[in-house]
Amino acid sequence: MERLQKVMAHCGVASRRKSEQLIIDGRVTVNGKRITELGYKVGNKDQIEVDGVPVYQEEPVYFAFYKPRGVISAVSDDKNRKVVTDFFHGVSERIFPVGRLDYDTSGLIIMTNDGEFANALTHPKHEVNKTYVAKIKGTPTNDELRPLARGVKIDGRKTAPARFKVLSSDRTKNTSIVELIIHEGRNHQVKKMFEAVGFPVIKLKREKIGQLDLIGLSSGKYRELSKKEVSQLLVEAKG
Q: Which residue numbers delimit the RNA-binding S4 domain (predicted)?
């Protein structure tokens, strides 16, 4: 038996705190009975509804997915473009992406049906490192990229300090490969950070989330995470 708000969060209804508010507001029923107490516990066979809509309890699942470029980080798209869930033909659980990657960005994204886990990894107060490798226009020196380590202003707000490393430069093609490690998740953040220092991104790939990486995966493929990997991600999220 688990607390109702915890089960709701696991099922992706809302964060645990928002689920608590739904209960307090009288919007949740269990087996047809309206529940307003936060200590109420439920089991796997209990029928939970929020505003009359059933909440389906599933065993939590977790996957590492290598998202190709040209794929939307969503479970559906009104323009009929390919989405991340299109690649999970053998998975019956109602999974969704943890955070997002831009349409033209490839790399690691975590897929799950555990809303509480997803919230832990994406909440702004948590600082899970995300490692990107960018192909950029230009051949910058370390000094020219140094502002990234101090934080640069994008969309009127300064970014948190990041770590960077120039992996290679090609003066003939006027391009470089740079690794950037950040822990925020703002919209188009990596591209905007490089633009802010004068080196636009040509191509972008996310290599790691925390210690989780793409080793063993090819583009468009996925694998299930081990319990140890899930636990490690939660430890990193909680600092």
A: 2-60
From 210, 185, 168, 13, select the one nearest 94 (Cα to Cα): 13
- 102 is known as an active-site residue: yes
Domain ranges of the chain: 2-55, 62-125+212-237, 130-209
Select which of 25, 51, 102, 104 is catalytic. 102
pLDDT reading at 180 higher than 90 = yes
119 contacts: CB under 8 Å, gap ≥ 6: 9, 15, 16
Q: How far is CA 89 from the centre of its chain?
A: 21
pTM: predicted TM-score of the whole model, two decimal places:
0.85
CATH architecture of 2-55: Roll (3.10)
What pLDDT, in 10s, does the model give residues 36-63?
A: 999 899 998 899 999 999 988 888 999 9
Q: Which two tokens stand for residue 203?
A: 């191509």
CATH of 130-209, one of 3.30.70.1560, 3.40.50.2300, 3.40.1010.10, 3.40.640.10: 3.30.70.1560
Helix (H, G, I), strand (E, B) or coil at 111: strand
